[in-house]
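Suppose a colleague, Dr. K., hands you the sequence of a protein chain of 557 amino acids and asks what its three-dimensional shape might be. Before reaching for any lab equipment, you can write down a predicted structure in token form. Begin with the sequence itself:
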Amino acid sequence: MIISKQLRKPQLVLIVDDQEINRDVLGMILEDDYEILYACNGREALDMIREYSDRLSVVLLDLIMPEMDGFEVLSRVRADEFLRRIPMIVLTAERSAELKALQMGAADFITKPFDMHEVILARVSRIIELSEGRQLISAAEHDPLTNLYSRNFFFEYANRIHRYHSVWQMDAVVLNIEQFHSVNALNGREFGDNALRVLGEEIKTFLSGTKGIASRFDADRFDIYCAPQPDYRALLDRFQERMNTLSRNANIRLRMGVAPWREDVEPMQLFDRASAACSMVRGDYKTRLMVYDEDMREREILNQRLLNDLRRAVEERELRVYYQPKYNVQCDPPRLSSAEALIRWQHPDLGMVSPGAFIPLFESNGQINVVDNFVWSEAARQIARWKEQFGVTVPVSVNLSRVDVFDPALEETLTGLVEANGLERSSLKLEVTESAYTENAGQMIGRISRLRELGFEIEMDDFGSGYSSLNMLKEVPVDRIKLDLRFLSGKGDMQRGHVIVSHVIQMIASLRMDLIAEGVETEQQALFLQEHGCSCMQGFHFYKPMDVESFEKIVAS
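The predicted structure, expressed as tokens, is then:
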């Protein structure tokens, strides 16, 4: 017999007992605080537990019943991954049965006869409260899509393994889906979610029976903390093969970074290293796996030192602005027309640090604006000094990075610099690389247009080094193009290079833009460019970048 009483409270309690009087007594004790369901045997109870599994707060379960006793119900519920979350309070008059029931997973017990009503109410309330608390923790503990650990719990458990089981050697593995946003865009969100679920299942299968743990966070990133594997390429291939089974039309490509175990490195730092290794193969379709090694560790240490030392380098003037002359070659002899400002770092301990070592680093973490602001300020100050000392204005080109372009104070900063030094705005020329226009092109073009309206001249740097140069010429408001001379170097077909460069020069002239050839290294290159109408050049054929004292000798000559 099943009796459902009128809903009074949101929590639902199932009372299971073959004795009607026991059911009635418990019902009267609990009915003011809970919604009650009744079952008279174990089989009926199991059916109801499955039917109301998403709502049940607790089950009060008699152990001795016909058809199916409470022990069997308890065993089956505990064996079910979903049902086992429902707490079971056993009802028994046999003291010996209590221990067995608790060992099988019962949350608590209530002894018969039911003579202490307040105690029963208190026990039920406490168990429900504890269960709901555990469920909230479980919800936060696991990613709902893959049921892997969430980030915070993953690192909590990884730290415990590192702290309390230090003899376990555990590697950090970071697994990413390449261009996952494109997978979603082309195949739909439902397909993408299923791909994440399937990959999560494969990771759980891999870790099954081991001490390893795994997590999903950052949408398409999976972190795996596992014993060292003999062949990580084979492991990556295993995961990739599972992804390949999802669809013939969907190209899901995985990449992996691995940081081998070190006793002195905590899990979070280990996963930072694995993530860095994984990032190194982003977009590389030949290499999908990278293992963090000693060279990468030394680079990481250097990078961190450079980041730490940047502010001091500005304050102590360790950063030096070098100048590379640009020459007008349509006169004899060629005449200095302007210069490009280039940054160098004279580090007190490391010596002269190459720009290639710190510029990409500062670009990636957003600190490049500190360097750029220093260069702008120094260049503006030097232009004013040369004007006063030599009576000529030598325009200087300075770099404008992606970070700078999206700085809301950019116009105010640049305008303030030229006005404070008494300069025309055209004397501080702004270089933006061609590749910078490919991301957030609309915002970039809008900001560049406003700078031109204020009187600043814009130069597109590295023209010809990217893949969208012609489209850039059509879309981007610039005054001057800097032509990358790799067409005239290397081992390729030089005749083709000559044809390409000559046509580019003609095209730029037809668009009524100025052209600067950069990277001119030989007299032959300079003569060819001059013959085809290029009037401005810079490169080692003329001068390498030089310190301000050396550059002033050229200005004075």
